[in-house]
Amino acid sequence: MTSDIETLSVEDTNSREEDNLFEILNSRREGLTDEEVNERIEKFEYSQFVPEKTNPVIKFLLLMWNPITWIMILTASITIVLSHGGGKPTDWEVFIGILFLIIINATINFIQQRKSGNNVDTLTESIEPEAKVKRNNYWKIVKAVELVRGDIINIKSGDVVPADGRLIDINDKILMDQSSLTGQSFPVNRSVGDEILCGAICRQGEGTAIISATGPETFAAKTMTLTNIDYRISHLQTILLRINNFRIFSIVLFIIVELLIMYVGFGYDYRRGINNILALLVGGIPMVMIIVFTIIFVHIPKQLSKYKTIAKYFPSIEELSGVTILCVDKTGTLTLNKIVIEKYSIKKYSDIETNDIIYYAALASNIENQNVIDACIISTYGDINKFNSIDKRTEITYKRINDGSVRRVTKGMPHTILDLCTRFKTNEQIKQFNDDVEEFAQRGFRSIAVAIQDIPDEENEFKLIGLLPIYDPLNSDAKETIDNARQLGIKIKILTGDELSIAKETGRRLNIGDNMYLSNTLKDYEDIDDLLLHADGFVDVYPKHKSEIISRLQEMGHMVAMIGDGINDAPALSKANVGIAVAEACDTSRAAADIILTEPGLSNIIKVILEARKMFQRMRSYIIYTWSLTYRVLFGFSILVFVFKFDFPLFM
Questions:
Q1: 297-337+475-611 adopts what CATH topology?
Q2: Is 587 known to be catalytic?
Q3: Is the domain 2-50+128-225 a CATH 2.70.150.10 member?
Q4: Residues 333-343: pLDDT tens digits?
Q5: What SS3 string covers 517-570?
Q6: Of 91, 151, 177, 329, which residue is the catalytic one?
């Protein structure tokens, strides 16, 4: 049966019934034996997924893969090939000098990028994750990397899921936070038979699962494989290539004219003429440009450190200066990825005040084993210790210390609570309640209803007292950052896996707009380019969708930056001209990004963009200067040769 495990796909395990899944994975509720585990480790090796790293030598060589270096190498090659004869030594000085400049430049860049890489590694250092697994019918703690398909694991509140699996047992219910994988703001309920994903966090409950995929077969690892891209030439390098192509054309034109005049007109011998030709060639090409650019690049880390930012790929700073569209993940980037109560929007259905509604909701919350909603309500109110607990479920019965009165409080999903409430309930109140729930839904809020019951109560009825709106709040500097980016002429687009109503409310709060669409709209829309340009964002998007949207915008000629934090953002971070990972980003996003923020918040992005534009302006000014210098050299050298028959020395 073990052979079936080798050929079984992850999709296949997700479609199996529970009993059949145990059979196909050759597992049982008592767990695998040590022999079975060792056999599978020996056959499949450890399940750890390690992103492929580029060889340092290849990294060093890639630093010399740019237009200026190409021209310098070509010039050095021509020099060594042609500068001989006439009883004079070969002009090795020029050849060695040019190669020296190239190697010095690459070495400085390599050292700086290595320092940045070490800083990133320091950021991603963490304790090796562990998992509680059942083997030989006993529970034990093992390293997550040692898990194999068919293992039985235990998941409880606060645990990070170590591998993909299927739930086989749960206690009450399980809430899983998949925001880093799917972009959803709120945890999702998981039942027996449901899939749980590697990297998700258990926010409430406890359960048992069978491992169906480990290492590179997990959803998270497959998402990481989308981040592999080929080496790309930056926008500035493309511009330099075009400028240098025209410069080379001009130099070649002058050389042809010089050849005709010196050899045909003046009758120079080969070596005398070739020295002048090489002087024109070497003098016309701005050899110092590569050193100037290196000095600018070396200056970058010092400047970025002021803004708590690390640049892994220096040309990405230059790319950032030309960004026209900024795509932003919502959950954990624009928002804090935690839920709070919108106190000013609480709806009242009795004479009980807003703070008291929150107080009663806090009483009905679980203090010890909190889910995210309980934690949100308790943190909003504060101290709730002034009562005696008698019974806790989804409701609480408590006794007040000061007067001895007993009261029952319940909270929960709006219509579940409404059905419990019969006291003072009227058709008008029901209509108002439904309208309020709908209003909150359109604004992207989740609603929690609160009701109370006095004990003893002859009618034994609950009374509806309020409706709490909860939402994922914005980052403190998100609106300022978005406003500043728009003032710089940058368009903003939200790309999120969250719901449409939540994304629209976020867009409205940030003045981005609410012209947003579901990802499946892209399949049927006639003019996709027009939709992409004018939409304020797209929702219910998967990692592949984000990457495809960015790719399409790039094909339209836009420079695109992407800001994200989760595993689901990694492909888009890698695909964008500039990928930016926020301070709270996961290791996957940091690995895929070009720039990493090390301080919470988004405001430093604007500072980095402004710094990038300053740097680009310096480089642009120097390019214009060297452009004019090239033509001064061409005309000046030509006049010296044509009019004064000046002979240039071997090495200038």
A1: Rossmann fold (3.40.50)
A2: no
A3: yes
A4: 898 888 888 88
A5: EECCHHHHCCCHHHHHHHCCEEECCCHHHHHHHHHHHHHCCCCEEEEECCHHHH
A6: 329
